[in-house]
Structure formats: C-alpha cells, structure tokens
Design brief:
Chain A is of the alpha+beta class and about 150 residues long. Chain A is built from four helices and eight strands, in the order βαββαβββαββα. Chain A is about 35% helix and about 30% strand. In chain B, about 30% of the residues lie in helices and about 30% in strands. The chains are: A alpha+beta (about 150), B alpha+beta (about 80). Chains A and B meet through β3, α3 and β7 of A and loops of B.
Chain lengths: ~150, ~80
C-alpha cells in the first residue's frame, strides 16, 4: 500500500512489477491510468494540476486504507502528478493487486471514485489566449455515492 | 485566535493570495467566511456562492457549521477535479 504525489512522470510497467514482486499470492492486477485529454479538438496546450500539499497525501492514504478494509487486497499503489502537463501525458495511476480479479477491479474503481471527489487536486486548462478551471461533475459524486 | 488561511484554485485567484494569517474570534467556519467577506470585496466575490466552495479545517473536509475550536489551518477551495 503506497501513495506518491509527485511532479515526475511514472513508469506503469515498473510500478506493476514492483507491486507483484515476491508475492506469490497475487493472481490479479488491475491498473488505471488517467491522461491529459483535449476536449476541444486541438486547442489545449497544457493542463495545470494544483494540489494541497499535506492534505493530498493524507486524503489519498485514507482512501487507500478504506479500500484495503473493504476488499482483499495484496497490494495497491496510487501515484498522482501535479504541475504543468501536456496533452496525452499521464496524470495519475491506480494499481490494485489481489488473489482474485473481482477484488482488484472493484477496489480500483472505488479508489478512482473517491479520489475524484475527496483528494484536493484542481485542473486548469491552458489555451493559446485563455485559461479555464475544469468544473467538477455531478456524475463524480453519484459514482462515489454508489459505494456507501 | 491566530489562523493560517489557505486558498486554492479559483478561490486563490479571486482573493489574490495563496495564504495569510488571520486573527479572528469566529466560532464557526461560516462566521469566518462572514468576517472575511465583510473585509474586502475580493473575499465577497470568492465566497458569494458557498455551494461551490469546499472547506477543510486542519486538512480535513468539513461543513460550514463546523466549530473552529483549536484549529490552526483553514482552507477554502472549489470542488476537487483530480484523477
């Protein structure tokens, strides 16, 4: 179980290898990677990720702990980047490992749903002549609420 | 009471600073919002619709009615958009 909040990019393959390393009990690994998406058809220059140092790490650790209490997880890993990221760049990843796939799938979805609404990150889109804060979505709250 | 007050994302941009020390007798988060809003227009602009502003006291999400108690740090920000 570990979390990282960093400006550097990450290597999904290396993270997954490290997650499963030496643990013969793991039969399933589920990963999710979020990328900077251009919703405008080419106008997006970059996405700025702001966060609340201290609270971010605490919130992610709590979300991960909640997942480990609910599902049988052998290991998990959350990495979320901050700073200025270009279209197509990796923003974050979640990886969950368990003996059977159901736990890994569900826990990964749970982690994503809670991360979206409870981890203090904010996205700002940068265009050639303007900027725009990304709005939160009501769907995200609904996605989280299905777990309660 | 001395509080560190932090602002993030568009709340920070509207108020114009990321962090400040506030000396206050506010009992709750809502009292603090009222007090800051009365100070200057930029606070009023940032806090005009508190349904789109979230609050954390000592780095834990709370509601507006939460007593400040012995809080050291209060943060205001828009709903999160990570992931």
């Amino acid at each position: 179980m570990s979390i990282s909040v960093q400006s550097d990019d990450f290597d999904l393959g290396a993270e997954v290898a490290a997650l499963a390393d030496g643990n013969g009990d793991i039969g399933a690994v589920v990963t999710f990677v979020g990328l900077v998406r251009d919703t405008t058809g080419g106008a997006l220059l970059s996405m700025e990720l702001e966060h609340y140092p201290g609270m971010t790490e605490q919130a992610l650790a709590e979300i991960e702990l909640a997942a480990t209490k609910r599902w049988s997880l052998s290991a998990s890993r959350v990495i979320h980047r901050y700073g200025n990221l270009k279209t197509g760049e990796q923003i974050m990843m979640v990886a969950t490992a368990s003996p059977h796939r159901k736990d890994a799938f569900e826990a990964a979805e749970f982690l994503m749903d809670y991360l979206k609404t409870d981890a203090p990150f904010w996205k700002k889109e940068h265009f050639k002549d303007s900027t725009k804060w990304v709005d939160s979505k009501a769907d995200d709250d609904a996605a989280k609420d299905r777990w309660s | 009471m001395q509080l560190d007050v932090l602002y993030f994302a568009w709340v920070r941009e509207r108020i114009g600073i990321a962090k400040e020390q506030v000396s206050t007798d506010a009992r709750t988060v809502a009292d603090l919002v009222k007090e800051l809003s009365a100070r200057e227009e930029r606070y009023q602009v940032a806090f005009q619709d508190m349904t789109v502003v979230k609050v954390a006291v000592d780095q834990v999400l709370v509601s507006l009615e939460t007593p400040l108690g012995r809080a050291k740090e209060v943060a205001f920000f828009p709903p999160m958009t990570g992931g």
